[in-house]
Structures are given as C-alpha cells and as structure tokens.
Write a structure and sequence with these properties.
- With 289 residues, the protein is of the alpha/beta class.
- The protein has 2 domains: 92 residues, Rossmann fold (3-Layer(aba) Sandwich), CATH 3.40.50; 152 residues, NAD(P)-binding Rossmann-like Domain (Rossmann fold, 3-Layer(aba) Sandwich), CATH 3.40.50.720.
- 39% of the residues lie in helices and 19% in strands.
- The chain has 10 helices and 12 strands.
- The strands form 2 sheets. Strands 7-6-5-8-9-11-10 form a 7-stranded mixed beta sheet, sandwiched between helices. It has a 5-stranded parallel beta sheet with strand order 2-1-3-4-12, sandwiched between helices.
- The chain is elongated and about 60 Å long.
- The two termini are 31 Å apart.
- The structure holds NADP nicotinamide-adenine-dinucleotide phosphate.
- The site of NADP nicotinamide-adenine-dinucleotide phosphate (NAP) has 25 residues, from helix 4, helix 5 and helix 9.
- NADP nicotinamide-adenine-dinucleotide phosphate (NAP) binds next to helix 4, helix 5 and helix 9.
C-alpha cells in the first residue's frame, strides 16, 4: 500500500500560510508539516528529514511546498532545498515554489490570455511588471513568443527585469517601458493587443479613457483585487466579459483558474519524486484548464 502523502510546507512568514495549508489538504495531502519563520540555514535539516526517512521508491509520497509572502525569500528557500537533495542516489522529493501565490497567479493570468489570443507574436504590456507576479507574467508571455513591454514607474527597474528574463530566455522579445506619465503610458499601450495589470494591491494603473484609446486591444487582465482596481472599468469578478470588443478579466475572474492550478500543482508533486515546479512548470499544468 502507498505511504501517506506528506507535504512539508516551508514558509518564511512567522505563521505558515493558512491559505496554502487549506489548498494542500484539498489537493490530496494526507499530512501537512508546516514550518514558519524558515530561514535558509534551517533548510538542510528539514530536507534531510524528508529524503532520508522513506525508501527511494516511496519518496514520491513526500513533497515540499515553499510559500510565504516574501517571494525573494521563497526563491532562496527553494534553491537551498534543491541544493540539499541527493538526486544521484534517488534521494530527493518533489518541490514547488508558490510564495505569495506568484507562480499560480501568473500562470492563471497567462492561461486566461491564451484562451482569447495567439500568444506567439502577441503584443503585450505588463503594467506593474517589476513585482513578483508581473515579472512572472512577462516571463511566461515571452516564453510563449509574445512581444512583451514591461512597465514600471522607473524604466531602469523595468530594464533590470528584462535583463533577468533574457538570461533565461535569450530569444525573448522584451522592452522596458516607463509608465510614470500619461504620455509614456499612452505610448507604451499604443499598439498592444494584451494588457496585464499586475500592480500593487489598491493601486489604479490604467484609466478607462486611456484603455478606450487603445484601438488594437483584445484582452485586458487586472490582477489587483483591492479597490481602487488596477484597470478602471473591469469588475473584480469579471471573467471573459466582452467590453466593446475587449475581453476583460478581473482578479477574482482569474482566481478560479489560479485555485485549480494551485491544487493541480500540489497533486502533481505526489506523482514522482523529481519535480521542481517553478513558474514555467506550473504554467504547463495551467494549460489543462
Ligand atoms: N489573486 C491572487 O491570488 C493573487 C496572488 C498574488 C498577487 N495578487 C495580486 O497581483 C498583483 C501583483 O502582485 P505583486 O505581489 O507582484 O505586487 P507588488 O510587488 O506589491 O507590486 C507590483 C508593482 O506595482 C508597482 N507599484 C507599487 N506601488 C505603486 C504605486 N503606489 N503606484 C504605482 N505603481 C506601484 C511597483 O512597480 P514599479 O515600482 O516598478 O512601478 C511594483 O513592483 C497585486 O495586486 C496582488 O494583490 C493576486
């Protein structure tokens, strides 16, 4: 009989996320070992506890989820955890990063866009493109062959994001765009067919009048659920709502897919012991929804 499925949750926040714990149970984990305030120096012992306890052939029933509200801290914990596995001896467990929901949210947003647009060659702009979610949206869109403008109030910040993405995807078509003035934003939006607003919660980034002035726009996705919303005129629950020829999604409209993707990703951890799920791998799972 298969061993019980154990998910080990490594969270950089003081209290390991209740949200992630609920999803883990709903995704089929039988047992959840949730650790808060996890620092890189704690990871080796936690990983060794995971990989040295069951036979290699049973290790698919143990997995690690890296969460927490600080995405950079999560990335560090993930890298540290991978470092302490021993794949040469089959002593490893599957692992997934979804700190602050960044990977599942970005994957769900790009999946939503792909339902209405051919992403290859699409002209996209990601507003708030320097945050963890926006960076991942830009990365996934670029990976699908879209031409992506990364928007930031500081063009230099957007440039740093583009440079990082190009290190992973040398053929990516990316352009950093300043968005601090209406004129810059108007220029950045001019020929775009897809806009994704991934700005901070409660920050309006795109006015209705400016959006209406984008003649080529086909899809508009806002990931900010906290009023004022990121794109004026899109309801938070909008899901593929046609507004004068533009298909619109609000944050909760994307959220249903995000939840499915999150559950599917956790469930997939228990299908083998060698999965490393970051944005790209999670996006692949999102394509089924
Ligand atoms: N549905 C979900 O499950 C879910 C999960 C995660 C996140 N989200 C939402 O997705 C969005 C993006 O998340 P995130 O964590 O990546 O966001 P974030 O890091 O808080 O902010 C993203 C970007 O917004 C810009 N920004 C910040 N303050 C601003 C201001 N006062 N005026 C204009 N721009 C400002 C910044 O870009 P610049 O400084 O470069 O301009 C920042 O890099 C948020 O609205 C978040 O709530 C939803």
């Amino acid at each position: 009989m298969d061993k019980r499925k154990i998910l080990i949750q490594l969270d950089s926040d003081r209290h390991a996320s209740v949200f992630d714990r609920v999803v883990a149970i709903d995704a089929g984990a039988d047992e959840l070992f949730a650790y808060g305030s996890v620092k890189p120096e704690h990871v080796q012992g936690l990983v060794h506890g995971a990989i040295f306890t069951r036979d290699a052939k049973e290790l698919k029933n143990t997995a690690i989820f890296v969460g927490g509200s600080d995405v950079t801290a999560g990335e560090t914990l993930m890298a540290e955890a991978v470092k302490h596995m021993l794949p040469k001896f089959g002593l490893r467990v599957s692992i997934m990063l979804d700190a602050n929901g960044a990977n599942t949210t970005a994957a769900a947003a790009v999946r939503a866009a792909s339902r209405h647009l051919e992403l290859k060659g699409a002209k996209a702009i990601v507003l708030g493109g320097t945050g963890p979610v926006g960076q991942r949206v830009a990365r996934l869109l670029a990976g699908e062959g879209a031409e992506v403008r990364v928007g930031s109030r500081q063009q230099a910040k957007a440039m740093t994001v583009c440079t990082e993405i190009i290190k992973r995807l040398p053929n990516a078509k990316l352009e950093p765009i300043g968005t601090s003035s209406e004129a810059e934003l108007r220029e950045g939006l001019a020929d775009r067919t897809l806009v994704v607003a991934a700005g901070a919660a409660g920050i309006g980034l795109l006015s209705k009048s400016l959006r209406d002035a984008c003649p080529n726009l086909k899809v508009a996705i806002d990931l900010n659920a906290v009023p004022p919303l990121g794109i004026e005129g899109i309801g938070v629950g909008d899901k593929a709502i046609d507004q004068a020829g533009v298909i619109c999604y609000g944050a909760i409209g994307v959220g249903g897919t995000k939840m499915k993707v999150h559950r599917a990703a956790v469930a997939s951890l228990f299908t083998s012991n060698d999965k490393i799920l970051d944005a790209e791998e999670i996006y692949l799972l999102a394509k089924q929804f």
